[in-house]
Specification:
The chain contains 11 helices and 12 strands. By secondary structure, it is an alpha/beta fold. The strands form 3 sheets. The protein has an 8-stranded parallel barrel with strand order 1-2-3-8-9-10-11-12, surrounded by 7 helices. The chain has a two-stranded antiparallel ribbon with strand order 4-7. The protein is globular and about 60 Å long. About 45% of the residues are buried.
């Protein structure tokens, strides 16, 4: 645990997100094969034993000591986008097939002219949104399930994705984590469903409950919106981070930037005087290693990590 705290105190860390709802094991293995060649610090894992085993196995096969990396186990509350999966009503579907183009996970496919979705690949990003597609909760994982899984695999960080409007549910889940988990708690939420005032009140509540225990606040700009490598795409992530820094006394907690992060995030955060601990990248990290050979993928991944840590 002290090793992790030292890392957090050092700051400017890179956190790789495999995708909370991502059970595409082939993709997970490839991501780890590529990013293990970089100076990444934290690997964000879905609450799935097979995915966890695959990450550890892939690192060991590349002759890495798995203890060289920090691991974070993520789960989401019901109705948080990270816990959603797309479903198609083919009676409403116009067979335009535009959704195939929009899906970054290639989770949508056609069979006998019908549009189908591979739930193992779908991460709930909702980029395929149309009248024929709806979204339902994908997992029924509780905070107690997450604690058991984290303890079983010696994972020292649990992240709660709480971008929902129900503040009582958020508080209750956080309280249970705080009581039953001895490691570091991270909370990821945004302004998408809560006002700035409610976000700040919640964060003050978390800090008070944690007392002197380490707390990570992951300021989520627009969840899973990373894709374009420009300032506009990452603007909301930096702006959301600025909200916490401006109104709350640092360093009561560690601040991570996420949601639309890319190669421009660190530069924009620096220009905005954000005293962040790390940058979390998921969608963009996966995008830049797709449809290229392995050498190019490694080059792209190294560039992203270096720019985020600069």
């Amino acid at each position: 645990m002290e090793y992790i705290i030292d890392k957090l105190n050092y700051g400017h860390l890179f956190k790789l997100v495999l995708g909370l709802g991502n059970l595409n094991y082939e993709q997970i293995k490839y991501i780890i094969q590529i990013y293990s060649n970089t100076k990444m610090d934290i690997i964000d894992l879905p609450c799935d034993q097979r995915a966890i085993d695959l990450v550890f196995e892939t690192l060991k096969n590349k002759n890495f000591n798995i203890e060289n990396f920090v691991y974070c186990l993520s789960f989401a509350l019901n109705d948080d986008k990270h816990n959603m999966c797309a479903f198609v009503n083919n009676q409403k579907c116009k067979k335009c097939y535009k959704c195939l183009k929009y899906c970054p996970q290639k989770a949508i496919y056609i069979k006998e002219k019908n549009v189908l979705i591979d739930s193992n690949k779908c991460i709930g990003c909702q980029k395929c949104k149309c009248k024929a597609i709806s979204y339902k909760n994908k997992f029924s994982i509780s905070e107690f399930d997450a604690v058991k899984l984290a303890n079983k695999n010696n994972i020292n960080i649990i992240e709660l994705h709480a971008s929902i409007s129900k503040t009582k549910t958020i508080k209750k889940t956080f309280d249970n984590l705080n009581t039953h988990f001895d490691g570091i708690i991270s909370v990821c939420f945004s302004r998408e469903y809560l006002s700035e005032n409610k976000l700040l009140k919640l964060t003050e509540y978390f800090i008070k409950k944690r007392q002197n225990k380490p707390l990570i606040i992951q300021a989520d700009g627009f969840s899973m919106s990373g894709g374009d490598n420009n300032y506009f795409s990452t603007l909301n992530a930096v702006s959301c981070s600025q909200l916490f820094q401006k109104y709350l006394k640092l360093p009561c907690f560690y601040l991570f930037i996420s949601g639309g992060t890319n190669e421009k995030t660190a530069q924009l955060a620096s220009l905005s005087n954000i005293k962040y601990t790390g940058i979390t990248v998921g969608s963009y990290a996966r995008k830049i290693i797709e449809n290229v050979n392995m050498d190019t993928a490694i080059i792209n991944a190294k560039r992203l990590v270096e720019l985020c840590k600069s």
